[in-house]
Every structure is written in structure tokens, then in C-alpha cells.
Amino acid sequence: MSLAKVYNEIKDCVWSWVESVASCVGATEAARLFQLARLFSSSDQELQQSAQLKWIPGRLQEWLLKKAIQVFGERTWKYQDSLPPLPVPPLKSSLEKYLESVKPFVTAEEYKETEAVVRQFEVGIGQSLHQQLLERAKVNRNWLEDWWLDVVYLRSRLPLPLNSNISGSIPTFDHIWPPQDGTLMDRVPLHLWYGLQMWKLLRKEQIPVDKAVRTGQPFCMDQFRKMVSTHRIPGVTMDRIVSHFRTEAEGTAPTHITLLCKGRVFKLEVIDPEGEPLTPPELKRQLDSVRQQCENAPEGPHISTLTAENRTKWAMIREKLMTMDTVNAENLSVIEQSIIVLAFDDAFPKNHEENFYETLAGNAQNRWFDHINTIVAYRSGLLCANYEHSPADAMVHVYSGYFINSQLQRNGPHWKGSVPDRVIPQPEELVFTIDDEIREAVVQAEKTFLKQASDFEVICPSFTDYGKKFIRSFKLHPDSYMQTALQLAYFRLHGKPAPTYETATLRQYYHGRTETVRSCTMEVVSWCQAMLDNTVPAEERKELMMAAFKKHIQLMEEAKNMLGFDRHLFGLQVLAMGAGIPLPAIFSDPAYSKSGGGGNFVLSTSLGGYTPCPGAAAPMVHHGHGIFYNIQPDRITYSVSAWKSCVETSAEEMSGSIQHSLRDMRQLLMSS
Q1: Is residue 552 among the annotated active site residues?
Q2: Which of 52, 289, 499, 603 lies at a 20 to 30 A Cα distance from 244?
Q3: Model confidence over 210-226: pLDDT tens digits?
């Protein structure tokens, strides 16, 4: 055995011992909390209070925090190998819960028919499929992972914009960067630099491990690997995901970004040889160089527009591009490996609502929709992100946005550091060889995009009457509270309940992503009916509301512990399809789609956390709404989307009804 190998083994053994001791004395958890405070404190005062180091001078305090994190901090992916595998719920339990979920949407006679179908499935083909699923779970730590990615995302042939892409915004316009022409080139470098600090933390494995609040159970951090340098590559029948990120321990990782400007594409090296992000002034020099090259020059061919096309068409065009010229293939590889894509846009959004519309539906000519993260920098000085949803869920993007927003709040809108005296790499233009067929494909791709984009509407108001603090004062769960408000809002407008999807995390399991909470229950329907019946006394309405809250909390807890049923039924359906047998009647029964099964949820909803960073997405169905919401101490910010061509839905009307519901609920709470 070589001396170096002996040294490394001794070092690993000692480090393991230090980690074990640190965990026993609570130093590991303290270091995790210190790191979270450094990442998300929005002021020095908040950081000092969180770290409980108010008596230590600022510079020494920062040094101590860094050392504590370095010595005692847990590596980001430390627990991956010890996470529990994704379990398979009992078949009988899943089917009973499914039957309960369809009740709000069927008549008594229809329910009897559905119950008969379910019972037949339970004693028949369902038993065989369930056993196959159990066998799959024995050899796969996550039996759902590949199926979910392939069937739900990668096999879809729909264009990514408004079908798979989502958007996230941060409220810099509220506290440091109001919309203002001429500010873009001062703001983008600082925003980009903070984003690259997140990249550096990932490289060093210094993102704190997420843990369950009550139990301390570590969460799976795998999706954080997909935050950067991850790309969805189109295929003729199925796409694929490639990720080029590596930690420092794993090897080299891409150190460049792609910049889209005036239809042209540029590669910018943004990390120095020591692995440190270039400073904002250095980044600004690079960005200024590109802007100067593009100013008063003919626009480029807008190759990125092709990523808005139907996936099969884009796959065929991409293949043609690569065979036309090896340089084209090299250029595409550079873009695919980029840490992020940055796009300059001449639109002038002034708030979250306009940010979301412009980012999701504004301009296909300067978005690379395949990339995990395209940051769009607008002429107004605002920035907004377009995310490709398939590699990772919204929570990792909220995490990044919240970090950038907190750092800007705490450190201010201007760079305060020094600038090294060194030569930095110049931007490199990626020039594509194209022909008339490719030019026409770009035109057609934009038409495809505009046809759907012109039908999209989204709003993003803030309800400021109250927020989390008021809700918690009644010992209520804010998320259950908001979900119940959404049910009343829809019921009041339409006189009927809405099949509703809410995201529940499965991250306590290995590579866990999401389970469905079907938050439209018989309990909440009874409450909605009572709220619209003037003869029902306030006390009874309040009791029904509390019952609805309780039911939602129960469903959320079950879903987080893989005791929901939607992913289970999905797995059984995939097995049936793969076996080539006739589709079991449970999946073709009208109650299945009526209650939201098969992607037919009228309300597609998600809590974006208790941060000030909202998100937005298109509705799941034509007659539905997409609703993201963030619950802050004094307000609730939410986005509502809809399709203009649907006469049944209106984002404005739904928003008004949500606020009406929230006010009714407050009045009900305070009435006794």
C-alpha cells in the first residue's frame, strides 16, 4: 500500500471520528444552522441573532462562522447512501383512499359503479401488478424515479414552454432595485455573482442538508446536483437529461455560462483557475463586451427559438444541425454544459406578474428552454428565471432565488469588494452554420410558441390583510389554511368542487420527488356548501372549517410518508402498459379522470415555502388554474394562471375570489 493511500485512509478515519464526536455534542447541527443563517439572513442584525454571536466583532464573527462550518458542517450529500428506499404502500389502503377521493365528484350511483370497478381490480389484476411492484422495489432504491421522469416528462412530445417550464422571481424591486431603464448592466453582474456563489457552495458540498423540522430526518439532496449544468436533450421519441456538474472531490465541472443577445450566442468563462467566481466588475466587462458587439449590428439567427418547438421536430432539426457542421455540434455541447443560460431581453416588466408573463410567454427568441435555468435580464433592470421542470422540482430553484435575494438585501445593491489586476477571458461567440431549412424552422418554432403563449394569462398579487403570523396565532397550519381558501374560492365561482393537486415532498426517501395531496375532500366541500348557505350559523361553519383543516393535515402527513395513493396507482398503470395487457378498468372509469387522475387536476397548486420568492406555471388542464403561493409573516403572495380561450376561467376572477375567501375565513375565526 502506498504512503499516500495510507495517509488518505488515516485522514478519512480521523475525519469520520471528528464528525461523529461533533454530532454527539450538537456541533454538527449548530454548524448547519450557522450556515443557513449565513445563506438566508437578510440583514447583519438577523445574522447576528441567528448565530447568537452579537458580542463578537463582524470580521471575527464571519471568520468563526466559516471555520465552524468547515470543521463541523455536514457535506451536502453526506446522507445519500443512508436514506431509506421509497416504500410501496399497501394495495388495500391505496384503493380505499382513492375511493374516498372521488366522492366529491360523482353521484351516489356513479360511486357504486366506481366502487365495483375498484373491488374487481383489488382482487384481480391489481394483486398481480402490486406484487410486481413489490419485486421492483426490492432491487430499486426508488422504484418510481425512472418511470416518473420518463413517462411524465421525457416521453412527452409537447413543446417545453408552458407545458414543462416554470418560472421564479425574486422581489428585488421591493427593496433595492426598482424598475429603471439604464440599470441592467450594473445589476446583472452582481445577481450573477451571487448565483455563482451558490455554484461554489455546491462544488464544495457546503449547502446544508435539508432536514425535517420535527424529526431531524435528513432529506435527499440529489436534486441540488441538477441546479446547474443540466440540460434536457430532445429525442425523436423520448428526451434525455444530461448533467455535467461535479463536486471538487469528483473532478472538474463546467466553468462557463451561455449568453443570448440579439439572436446571437456567446460563451463566457466566469470562474477563475482557483475555482472562484470572477468579481462583478470583471463579469460586467464581459457583458459590456457582448452588448457592444451586438449593438447596431444585424441580429443573429435566433437558434434558441428552436427549443420552443415540438420535441420530435426539434430533435430532428438538432440532428441536422450537428451533421451539417461539427462546429454546430460543439456549440450545442457548450450550451448544454453551461452553468446557466443568461438572456438579455428588451421587455420592461415592473413586478412579479409582468416578470412571469414575459418570462413564460413573452419572447421565444432568447430563451434556451431545454436548459435547467435561463435567467432573463430585462431592460427594466428586473431579472426572472425560466426553469426546465423535469430534472428538479421547484423547491431547489426557490432555494437559489431566496439565497440571492437575501444576499442582496444584506449586502446592498453595489459591489464593495476589490478587483484583481488580471486579464480575464474574452467572450467567445458561438456561430452556427445554417441553411434556409433551418431558418424556416426557426420561423415555424416561433409560430408554435406564439400560438400557445398568446392564450396564456397570469397574475401575481399580494394579499396584505394578514399572513402566517395571524394564521399561526390560532394554532393553524398556514398551508392547510391556504388550500382550504382555494377550495372556497373555486366553489364560490363555479358552484362545484375542483379536483386539486398539491405537491407533497418525498425527499425523506432516496431520490424522492413528489406525491399528490388531493386537497378537495368531502370535509372541505361540506364547509364550502355551508359558507354559501346563509342559514348555517357561524359556529357550525367554523367547526366544518376546522374539520377541513384537520383532514388536509392528515392527507399531507400521509403523502409525505408515501402513504398517499397517486404515485402507487401510477406505478401499477405503468406496469400494466408495459405488460401489453388491456388497461385495467380502474384507469378508464370516468371517476378516475373526473377526480383528477391522469393529469386532469383543475387546480394545480404548490406552496413555494415561507419565503418572499414566488413562482408561476401554466394550468394542468384547459379549464383549470395553476396556483403557486408563498406565505410570509404579514402577507400571502400568489400567482394564478389560466387560458384566455376558456370561458369558464379567469385569473382575475379567481384571484378576487381567493381574497374574498381569505377575508371570510378571518371573520369566521374572529367571530367567536
Answers
A1: no
A2: 289
A3: 999 889 999 999 999 99
